[in-house]
Specification:
alpha/beta, seven-stranded mixed β-sheet, Rossmann fold, 16 strands, 2-enoyl-CoA Hydratase, Chain A, domain 1, elongated, 2 domains
């Protein structure tokens, strides 16, 4: 047996447990361990087998440390086939997230239970890929073509309640009682004489599907993700699930996966994925550093940049106090923010209620005294060192102790700005890229005393 996968027997139920911290990724030793343990479970005299994971989550996907390296055996299909071909019911017990290969593993089980906080999904499209182990063929057989296209082509996560209603999860069990709940479920279906529900054999939801579903999905994806190949390939694979046999659909999925895998788009999207992860790690920052709570933010300047920064925080649900020196400029800035939100609503990306909710998080003011209770203040005025130093001198007088004072400057000396305050250790550069409410990139500049 693998060190990361164990096999135990509890009376009439066998349990296969994955323990590969931190997210139980499908490393080569996990794949081997799954195959070995299910091979062992196939030969015992138990009536059902539970697949469960230790730690904070179910199998959360592929092992990203193996990306771009020569593949290590066994191939993922080996354990999946071992699970699906079991002659007794296999129940996946899901907590945390079952993503990518994790959900594909669960779809090879005959039944799935989960806790209410669990989420499932097939997010490979964000890496320029598609689910390559049957996800595009099995998921439509459970939830139908329209829902499968939405889930796979967008890579969105599905919460447990929605997954339960759609049929991905067969039963919800109490938080903190997953294993016992899964055993109870397994014994119940065995006592009721339930058949082995192989998703691959389900045909009802992939038969007689309206082709317009796929045409509409392609038009939507072409508009929303212009130039990206993976969403269209995902749609094509779901369509294949509705027009071809399971075996033919799997072959088509493998072909589409390989084409995307070999394409430069996938390489680029994976580079971005790893770069974003690396950007969140500061080399000289201890792991035990205490984070400051940011519950309310102040932004100085209601121009294009300041308004965009305010939207950025409102989008995250953080209240913003937006300060300007002139009422006319302030009103104009708020008008631009509202028009940006309303334009997004017209595209169907926000509801009217969400527009009002986000506008309600932005409080306009002409008074520095209204910034006394915020946790962070970001200055976003034009690039003039004297103006910025004057602003930071005022902020030093009104901001509470412990408040972060940030400048959005792209070229000026953060240390020179910090020097006008009595708290240079709380001054930092936060260089947002325009439009700040859209661009993810944020350059953080530490001063000498930050």
């Amino acid at each position: 047996m693998s060190q990361s996968v164990s096999y135990t027997v509890d009376g009439d139920i066998s349990v296969v447990t994955v323990n590969n911290p931190p997210v139980n990724a499908l490393s080569h030793h996990v794949r081997q361990g799954l195959y070995d343990c299910f091979t062992a479970a196939a030969g015992d005299d138990t009536v059902a087998t539970i697949l469960i994971c230790d730690g904070r989550t179910f199998i959360a996907g592929a092992d990203i440390t193996e990306f771009g390296k020569p593949p290590k055996p066994p191939h993922f299909s080996l354990p999946l086939n071992a699970i699906e071909s079991m002659s007794k019911p296999v129940v996946a017990a899901i907590h945390g997230t079952a993503l990518g290969g994790g959900l594909e593993t669960a779809l090879c089980c005959h039944y799935r239970v989960g806790v209410p906080s669990a989420k499932v999904g097939l997010p490979e499209v964000h890496l320029g890929l598609l689910p390559g182990a049957g996800g595009t063929q099995r998921l439509p057989r459970l939830i139908g073509a329209r829902a499968a296209v939405e889930a796979i082509a967008t890579g969105s996560h599905i919460d447990a309640a929605t997954a339960h209603a759609a049929g991905v999860i067969d039963a919800l069990v109490d938080e903190g009682d997953l294993l016992e709940g899964a055993k109870t479920f397994a014994r119940k279906i065995v006592s009721e004489g339930a058949t082995l529900r192989k998703v691959r054999d389900m045909k009802e939801k992939v038969t007689g599907v309206d082709p317009a579903i796929f045409e509409t999905a392609r038009a939507t994806a072409t508009k929303a993700r212009r130039g990206f190949k993976a969403p269209l390939s995902c749609i094509a694979c779901v369509e294949a699930a509705c027009t071809l046999s399971f075996e033919e659909g799997m072959a088509f999925e493998r072909q589409m996966f390989q084409e995307l895998h070999d394409d430069i788009q996938s390489s680029a999207q994976q580079h971005i994925f790893f770069a974003e992860r690396a950007a969140s790690k500061v080399d000289d920052m201890p792991n035990d550093v205490e984070l400051l709570d940011i519950t309310r933010v102040g932004v100085i300047g209601a121009g294009t940049m300041g308004g965009g920064i305010a939207m950025n925080f409102a989008n995250a649900g953080i209240p913003v106090t937006l300060l300007e020196m002139n009422q006319e400029v302030l009103d104009k800035g708020l008008g631009v923010v509202r028009s940006n939100y309303e334009r997004t609503a017209k595209k169907g990306r926000l509801s009217d209620a969400q527009v009002e909710e986000r506008m309600g998080l932005i409080t306009a003011t002409l008074n520095y005294e209204d910034l006394t209770d915020v946790d962070m203040i970001i200055e976003a005025v034009y690039e003039n060192i004297d103006v910025k130093k004057e602003i930071f001198g005022k902020l030093d007088e009104v901001a509470r102790a412990g408040c972060i004072l940030a400048t959005n400057t792209s070229t000026l000396d953060v240390d020179e700005i910090a020097a006008v305050t009595r708290r240079p250790e709380m001054v930092i550069g936060t260089h947002f890229f325009s439009p700040a409410n859209v661009m993810k990139l944020l350059e953080i500049v530490r001063g000498e005393k930050t």
